[in-house]
Amino acid sequence: MHHLLLLLALLGLGVAAQQSPFDVVSSGSQRYVVAHFMVGNTYPYTTSDWAQDISLASSKGIDAFALNVGRDPWQPDRIKDAYETARQLGTNFQLFISLDMTSIPCATRDHAEQLRYYFEPYRNHPNQFKYNGLPFLSTFAGEGCSFGTGSYKDGWSLAIKDGRPPVYFVPSFFLDPGTIGSLNFVDGTFHWNGAWPMKNTNVSWVSDNEYISQLGGKRMYMAGVSPWFFTHYGPDTWNKNWIYRCDDWHFVQRWELVVNHRNVTQIAQLITWNDYGESHYVGPIHGAQPNSQSWVDGFDHQGWLDLSAYYAAAFKTGYYPLIRRDRIFLWGRLYPAAAGSPDRVPRPANWEWTQDVLWGAMLLTDDAQLKISCGASKLTATYPAGLSKFQLPLVDACSVSASLVRNNQVVLNFSPQGFSFSTRPPMYNFNSFVAASP
């Protein structure tokens, strides 16, 4: 387990948190990191777009994309392009289907037959992700699907089992975890909502344990890992307007939990690569946004992808990787949570759960002193080699600037362009601005 040490800042109101990066729970079996990918945002994609995403994901320790597919008639063509591009790239990057059952119809027996058209064509594809030798298949939701049988248990048995070619089925059903053990048609479970705290608390492993305890040690567990959650659609569109609490270095804390429980977790799924509408994307912003431009444009999140790669290596190998260069990662909202706005969509639900704070993490090759400021808020503190965390209150309009000093020499200056806190938001944008030093 990591050992966490909280240190008071030497100057200002900033708080420093340090951790040892060396203690990891080891396990002999292979672990995987995958990323949830919204095919619904790829309408304009070409094979070059797929090649860009696959190459980038592979370079950051991601083994596969979970291709979230819905009912749009054009989506199977994009899936075909993804598989073909992965094959042409000649890499080991893999893909699997995640059936979005909030979109795909599942009321009749014909729907059960149609479901297989999404994944059967890729059963023997060289880039199909397999687990225990079987094609891997997942879902988003589906607990309400009966496929004309009268119950979701009978329905999914009909659709997935019942003499059909086998798959390794690990759905994300939004059910009481106590029911998971009775689902004889599943090979494991994916706990989507474990990626965030559902209340005004820090993220924990409590709900994960509730699911894992039902698997009997014989079926696999896939844990969700997500950096953020903010969606801002008014009642005239999808009527989704809330945040989850992602304070206190949420992304780092969640990854640490997953790494420390790798003995009972076989796959970590990043939520997500490109779900712009819910603000938890870690990949580049391209494709077709779902009318989320007003809170996504200008808020690149790829710094989180680099930070995630550090934890992905630890999860997969059981050892944190050697840090070869100093890096600073910064993230936070650009506007006060309580500030008013002329936005036509109201302030998001749960807005009072979040603090006006800049969150930061560092990867250090050796001991160094951090100096960081935003206006009157300042922090100066010394940190050891490894990964350390720090925070800085955001109070007045300001721009962020940071530096690292080692042996009386400045080894890194970092003033990320665009990372400016403003007390007058043009809209209720609770998305996170993310920046990472080169």
From TrEMBL:
CDD domains: GH71. It comes from the Eukaryota. The lineage of its organism: Eukaryota, Fungi, Dikarya, Basidiomycota, Agaricomycotina. This is Glycoside hydrolase family 71 protein. Residues 1-17 form the signal peptide. The keyword Signal applies. InterPro entries: Glyco_hydro_71. Pfam families: Glyco_hydro_71. Keywords: Signal.
